[in-house]
Each structure stands twice: as C-alpha cells, then as structure tokens.
Write a structure and sequence with these properties.
Strand content: 5-15%
Number of strands: 13
CATH superfamily of the largest domain: Type I PLP-dependent aspartate aminotransferase-like (Major domain)
Radius of gyration: 21 Å
Number of helices: 14
CATH architecture of the largest domain: 3-Layer(aba) Sandwich
CATH class of the largest domain: Alpha Beta
Order of helices and strands: HEHHEHEHEEHEHEHEHEHHHEHEEEH
Strand order of the largest sheet: 2-9-8-7-6-3-4-5
Structural class: alpha/beta
Amino acid sequence: MNPLLAKLQPYPFERLRQLFTGVTPNPSYRPISLGIGEPKHPTPAFIKQALARAMETPGHDLSGYPATAGSPELRQACARWLEQRYALKVDLATQVLPVNGSREALFALAQTVIDPTKPAVVVCPNPFYQIYEGAALLAGAEPYYAPSDPARNFAVDWDSVPESVWAKTQLLYVCSPGNPTGAVMPLAEWKKLFELQDRHGFVIASDECYSEIYFRDEPPLGGLEAAAKLGRGDFRRLIALTSLSKRSNVPGMRSGFVAGDAALIRQFLLYRTYHGSAMSPIVQSASIAAWSDEQHVVENRELYRRKFAEVTPLLEQALDVQLPDAAFYLWAGVRGSDTAFARDLLAQYNVTVLPGSYLAREAGGVNPGTGRIRMALVADTAECVEAAQRIVQFVQNNSRSPS
C-alpha cells in the first residue's frame, strides 16, 4: 500500500459527519444545507440539449475512444473564451488542454510537476481547498500553509513565507477568487508572486473556478491575464485552471480546461495520457456549447448578486460577515467555537454550515479558520433567506441564554 496515503487527512465533509454524530436536528424545521459548495441553480436547457444531440451525432457518440487532448473544436472554444474574457491569444494546439473538472486537474498537475527526489514544498493558502494538500502529499512533497489576513479582506500573506521555504518550493497553488474567503488577487500581488517565481523557479497553479461569480463591476483578474499585463506573454511556469461547474451550473459534467505554459502543458498531456483522463465526446460537445455562450453566465451571476444582496444584510445583524469580492461563499466570524456553532445550529434550527477550522490547518500555532464558518449560498434565494433568518434567530437566542 502507498505509505503516503496515511498522510491524508479526512475531507471536511467527513469531519462534519463525525461532528454531527448523535445530533438530532429539530424536526420543526425542514433541513437546509449551506455546507457544500455544489451549484443548485438549474442547468441551462441548451447545454442539456447539446448533450442529447451529441448522442445522435456520428463521430460524437460513445463508440470510440476520445483523445486525451480533446477535439480541436473544444480547444478552439476554450481559446476563444480566453480571448473574449481576458483579451488573451493562446495557441490552441499547445497552450490549452481540456480536463475533467478543475479538481481532477489540480491533483494531477502536482503529480506532473513535483520532483520528489529533491526537497519539495508546495505552498498553498490557508484556509484552502483540501485537494491542494492531498495532491502535495501524494506527490511526495510537503505542504506549507500561507495564512490569509482578515485585515486585508483575507488576502494571503505571502510575505510571511520564509525565503528558506520559497527556496524549496516546486509548486504554488493560488485561488482567486478564493475558497472560502472570496478574495481576489490584484495585479500587485501577482507581480510579487512572479518575482518570487523568477528567483526560485517554482510553478504556479492558478485555480480560477469561481472567476465568473463576482459582485463588483470589474471582473476578477486572471493569472494569465496578469502575466500578459506584466510582460510575461509566454506564461512561463504558469498554468490557469477553470471549470464549467460553477459558471454554467453543470458540476455533473466534470468539464473544464487548463491553459498556460506550452512546455508544462506538453508534460501534463503526457501524464494524463497514462492517467486515462480523456473527456467523453458527448461532454465535449456540450462543453463547446457552454463555453460559446455568455448570456447564461450573466443571468447566473445576477441570480447570485440578488441572493447575496438579500442574505448578507440579514446575517450582518448577528455575525461578523461582509459581501465578498467573488465566489458563492460567505466567510463569517462567530462567537466561540466554530464547531460548536455548527453542531448547535443543526440541532436547534436544522441548518448545516461548515466550520472554518475544517478548511484550514494550524500553522505557527494558529488555525486561521477557527471561529469562522463557511456558508455556501448555492440554493435558491428563498431557501438561503430562510436559512439566514434561522441563523440570526439562533445567534440572538443563544446570546440571551445564561452561560
């Protein structure tokens, strides 16, 4: 058995199940879950129709093995989206590669990049998406957790990472917009990371799966876009990863793409060829339709904007919370233990939230998720508003209870 498997920690949702063992939710309330970041908005009809049509299209059915590199038409659709969204021109033959969702690609990229025969560190934000940690450990590297700074809207404190750590770093995961904080990295932050990269030679993996859900007029800056603005048009040692799951409400399709450094893409394709990661031609056809349409993305974003505009002011009455830059989470401060808050909220009001400490690791004696909860506002507005009202009532009732 691979001994590195023993280093993996339970996934946050497994820890949540353990936390709720023995808890009987209040039956007076119907269950509402804000715990898992799984889009619940309806999948656009034209995407489902594209899936159905592909089944009847010669050469696009299930009778043959798909190429790991995807079809030229899909790569063209991805490249065209990058040009429309970020004003970037990429070589669709060498700088774009379809993947089965960003999660799979985030994991596989570490296996491609890390050289375990040398001291290897993978730096990631803290709190973070746990795939970063697992990918690092199973590649034979050690994760290093860079803390977020609440005073700067939870921007990552890259300056806190010692030079001795950067010197051993082979891969840096960044997430902008961030999960769970929703923070967006500005150009100055990218400039700092590129300067560190030039000194130490590590690869940057830019996780951008939330890039199309934002609340300001200015869309979030992408990693490739930042590189181009800073004169790094070859995207050296940089890979951006994105997905249709949140953008188009199709998490079940498992469809996304990576783009960037052609040399890295070539090695990544080699790894994925052996890994057996080709995308179904049916999904490819529907993905082309999804990447080629922006109207459904605008409508989806507006649903989130209206929802957050209703829910955030309600929760501000009881929690330390504010509208994020982007993504579909609220990262809220609570009084006392975040795990006790989540457990008691379920028991009393049948609402599920995720303790922030489950999304972070203790580093330097501090777990930056402690005392916070993550709420995924993925259900419809009415359900999210009802959950917010229950949370406010829970906080107010418990603050009046004798200690």
